[in-house]
Amino acid sequence: MPRTVIRGGLVITAAEEMHADVLIEGEQVVALAATGSDVADGWTADRVIDATGQYVIPGGVDAHTHMQLPFGGTEASDTFETGTRAAAFGGTTTIVDFAVQSVGSSLRAGLDAWHAKAAGVCAIDYAFHMILGDVNESSLKEMDLLVGEGVTSFKLFMAYPGVFYSDDGQILRAMQRGADNGGLIMMHAENGIAIDVLVEQALAAGKTDPRYHGEVRRELLEAEATHRAIKLAQVAGSPLYVVHVSAASAVAELARARDEGLPVFGETCPQYLYLSTDNLAEPGFEGAKYVCSTPLRPREHQAALWRGLRTNDLQVVSTDHCPFCFTGQKDLGRGDFSKIPNGLPGVENRMDLLHQAVLDGHLTRRRWIEIACATPARMFGLYPRKGTVTPGADADLVVYDPTAVQTVSAATHHMNVDYSAYEGRQLTGRARTVLSRGTVVVDGDAYLGRAGHGRYQQRSTCQYL
Ligand SMILES: [Zn+2]
Q1: Using an 8 Å Cβ cutoff, are 263 and 237 in contact?
Q2: Ligand 1 centre and the CA of 322: distance in Å?
């Protein structure tokens, strides 16, 4: 088996930081030893990667992406091929995407369709959550089978009536089933029934600009849905993972429940940490670039999100990567904000935006790795194969240059979308060399990977309880 040694870097995991050399055999890490020690110096290898002055971190685990998602009359613009390649450039080596069960169809059919999209084209490893779009007797039974096949998390929507929406009875039944079979329920917590009333009223009043997307999706309706989801999970005796938390009051609901000892978890995304309703209000139709749900909130909410990440009331930062081009896709909502496809690109930017947060004093280095690599891997049953640097783990590793300065731009990013939500932003830190299961897939600006290197990952049940 080919042997690679990464020499001289500062290895950072969620638990520790150490100056160590990392020995890789084939696809796995087999040993770590202190840099300069006799053990490390005695290692011979086919390839030596010099990481002097660099960090050596586990590859990022992005637990929330939507490649090629059909939505709002169009389809997310990154394929599994382009999206996973972009992820690799950004230092992410595993994604967990969402297969969709549509109304009237089975979980199996949805999962098969997503396998067909991803098979043979991914640059990095991938796994699936399942969106429950039609909770009924047969789909509840199918949940058990999927858990057995390594699809161990199920997303429900309190938003989007007529599309993905589940009512409280359906939610309770799915949670009860999850409590039995070990499946983790993920929730899009916004009161979609109430939001649709406010959408209708806003449009009738001639309020059609993108910024009204943020106004009708009221913070109170995120907090209310978060509270209701927590109570339903409590009744069902199931854990709960709330996706893309954006409102301070929703964080407060999670914190209160956790203080009561309930197994509830929350994820936020870089867009809520760095962008705000100021972006939605950008002149012309520019605000459409920032339309996603839950929506961006006023800037004041960001402090509560950072605090939640520090206090572990929020455990994970994922991207909810769901790109739509400004020209030809976001366009669909000119004159009617409710027709703007919901979603932002970000899979390539997450690790760097969070490293910037380390430099800005929001997070420690280890917490950066915890929320971006280790906890998503544990939450979704991929640990310690993914999310850390340890003997036996997959050699998904990033040699990260903490001093490289970059300016984020659509002109240079690798995502298949014609704008960047972070255009012009200067960030310090960047992935230099990225390995996926021992293979160098990115080296500087060069892509050395291949479509189909990425392998489907069966997951165990949640390891974070
Ligand atoms: Zn999503």
Answers
A1: no
A2: 7
